[in-house]
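input
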Amino acid sequence: MNSLKRNALRLEALEERWVPTSFRFDGSNVFIFNVTTPTLTVTEGAANNNLTVNGLTFASTGNLTIQQGNNAKNNIAVNLNSTVGLVGNLSINTGNGQSTVSVDSLAGGTGLLAGNMQIRLGNGGGTVNLGTTNGLNDRGNVSVSVPAQANNTVTVGGGANASTFAGNSLVFSNFNNVTLGGGAGTGDTFRGNVFVSDSTNPNPGTVTLGTKAAVLGNFTVAGGTGNTTVAVNGKTVAGTLSVNLKNGTNALTFGNTTPTTIGSLNYTSGNGSTTFNPGTSPVTVQNGVQFNFGNGVNSLVGNSSNFTVNNNLFVNNGNGGLNAATNTFKGSVLGGLFVNTGNGTNAFTLDTTAAVAAGGTGTSNFNYGTNNGGNSVTINNTTTTPTALNLNFGNSGANLFTLNAGNPGTAQITGTISWATPSMANAGNGFVDNGYVFTSSITLINVPS
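output
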């Protein structure tokens, strides 16, 4: 019997499934789909709003939309010119690979974007740069977002030319490292409201308003669950600077080399360690200041003698303790300074002498209230500015008040000081007057003997 000869089994190659980048142009708007190349660069020509990409040129008079087609790493760059600019909106969406998106200007000028800008990174997160090389002139709203809880970075401005963002709102969502503005020329300007949100990101974060930058609206920072530092180094926040941080180790600092002006200041933190450092250059808050600190160990740090509040300053502290004595408060509060502490160990020193020496007026109205924690409160005043006190200690047996003042006729201490529980029952209470002679109206209640 003859055997049959059979061909060996083999696999046939599948049909090629690679999808190249696609373009659609409707006579006005340019759509770029399925971006699969590692790098995509769109360059605007000087005439007729021409947009050139991959050797193709489109005479665009409308929107530019870019949609990534895979989940690989991508670098997407849009370079605008200053002669015509992009007339419509700019929309960029990347895939889930870690991507970098840059929107900037061609060398020699500040590129114009007349419409809104929307940039959305995928789950891999990444980096967004806006005007970081040559500057950018954006007249619309800006929205930059990423869903991933990763180390995501956005940098705005700081290029060779000053950038201007003239829209009503600039929103940056889920970026834990944000730098806004830099020092080119007169500095970058944000004419609307700026909102930075990193609400659920566990990674440490830093939000910086760069040197000479100006926010003409409100500046709001909502930090993540990781440690967060907010550095305000710009020259102006004309509206409200609102910083809301969670339970990490958090800090708000001012660090400009020239004076900084703030409209109002609200600083809220969770139960982590919280610090406030007003820096060494003059910082003036035109309206009120509100500090709401949680149950962590919280402190005022640095030299506050150049810190001025033209209205009231409220400090509300939780049960973890407040330290404003190692670095005493030396600022000028033209309204009232109101401090309310919890059940922790608290220390507060008010030094009006240092504030006046720095060119300020000092703080003449000091109100201090506490629950049942131990408190050490000290007043330093050797100036002619009177200090009106309203101090109410709780039921702890460890409340110490110290008066370091000038001679009668130089400093005038007035008001009310109350130790809530008679000192016979709480031998830890104390009063050190350093020989001061009262010459103005004063009320002392339950004075420790």
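quick obs: The mean pLDDT is 89.
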